[in-house]
Amino acid sequence: MSSKIRLTPTSYIVLGLVEAAGEATPYELKQVVASGLGDFWSIQHAQLYAEPERLAAAGYLKERREESGRRRRHYKVTAAGRKALKGWLDEPTEELTELRDPGLLKLFFGATPKPLATAQLPVHERRLADYEALHKELGEDAPAGIRFSLEAGIGHEREWVRFWKQVGA
Amino acid sequence: MSSKIRLTPTSYIVLGLVEAAGEATPYELKQVVASGLGDFWSIQHAQLYAEPERLAAAGYLKERREESGRRRRHYKVTAAGRKALKGWLDEPTEELTELRDPGLLKLFFGATPKPLATAQLPVHERRLADYEALHKELGEDAPAGIRFSLEAGIGHEREWVRFWKQVGA
DNA sequence: CCTATCATGTAATCCGTTACATGATTAT
DNA sequence: ATAATCATGTAACGGATTACATGATAGG
């Protein structure tokens, strides 16, 4: 218990999701990630098995294993985990994202703009449409964080659409 | 020579930079990355030693080692390397970036918006100003890829500024 | 002349990805 | 029933980050 590990964004994602769920199995985490969060911060499903184990070993999660058939592992956030999560949430960050866009990278290194724009534009348009649809469906009661995140996604997708249109012109 | 390795974005960045330089040492690559590209796709300096070695072992780069004092390693792109780079450049991608923004992640998980916005806004404003200054300095002869990348950066930084202003309001 | 910083590199660790594998359900 | 797909998980590998380390150069 409580060996010192470094907490990565993945760690906080797992902590945050388990905390929100109360209790969760890796597979359930996978579902949640796939249903939204994964669009702006994806995690391989194998990580959702490995990371809770790490966190449990360090005392941030408590594991309960099913006795019968599947022997699924269910995880809960411990007091230490809740504290770590809160500490992270309460610490505003000045860290900046990098774009790290594969298409842009090619452009940077001299790829021909037109075909790239032709490939990129429709996928961004589609994703933008998805986000906007989601946003409309969002109820009044939706948590502010979720709404903000979606709005950030929409803003950046609009920017990409604008960008690739210009590049393709 | 020519063992099969997987080429990652890092690989193409190294190939692209070495190709542009004609010949380069890891340290020179580090300089180049630090002076611009790193803002939207950073690479740890240790990678700039490891990756050329990998690429050389696979036949994409040729290594020349200094005889005297420092015994620096100088790399050049081979024909195979040039072919790989061109293949990558010529293949338009539909891949999408994820936002993966640390601040947004906290917001998503329920961090208090105000302090986050307060921390994020100034750094984005500063970066935006930097980009805009760079853009002004860009000569007529600047490669299109560089110009586009910078413009993408500007667009997204504007979006972040707008976003965090709204979040903070 | 001394020390701080820049230049240059290697080693160790670990997270994340990819590949592999098998038990349960649903559809045909 | 049988195939196909979903559910659930483990193992292996490798790229990326962090830590460690030393030689050169410039400033005080």
Brief digest:
The structure is a homodimer of 169-residue chains. With 169 residues, chain A is mainly alpha-helical.
Proportion of helical residues of chain A: 55-70%
Radius of gyration of chain A: 19 Å
Task: State the distance separating the first and last CA atoms of chain A.
Answer: 59 Å
Global geometry of chain A:
elongated
Report the order of strands and helices of chain A.
HHHEEHHHH
- The structure class of chain A reads mainly alpha
The major sheet of chain A is characterized as: 2 strands, antiparallel
User: In what order do the strands lie side by side in the largest sheet of chain A?
Assistant: 1-2
Seen as an oligomer or otherwise, the chain set is homodimer
Mean pLDDT figure of chain A:
93
Count the beta strands of chain A. Answer: 2
Low-confidence stretches of chain A: none
Strand content of chain A: 5-15%
Tally the helices of chain A: what do you get? 7
Task: Tell me the greatest interface.
Answer: A-B, 60 and 60 residues
Descriptive report:
Two copies of one chain form a homodimer. Chain A is mainly α and 169 residues long. Chain A is built from seven helices and two strands. A two-stranded antiparallel sheet of chain A has the order 1-2. In chain A, a hairpin with a 7-residue loop joins strand 1 (61-65) and strand 2 (73-77). In chain A, helix 1 (9-21) crosses helix 4 (79-90). The first copy, chain A, starts with 8 loop residues before the first helix and ends with a helix. In chain A, 35% of the residues are buried. The model of chain A has no long low-confidence stretch (mean pLDDT 93). At the A-B interface, helix 1, helix 4, helix 5, helix 6 and helix 7 of A face helix 1, helix 4, helix 5, helix 6 and helix 7 of B. Chain A binds a DNA duplex (28 and 28 nucleotides) through residues 6, 8, 10, 25-27, 30, 43-47, 49-51, 54, 69-70, 72-73.
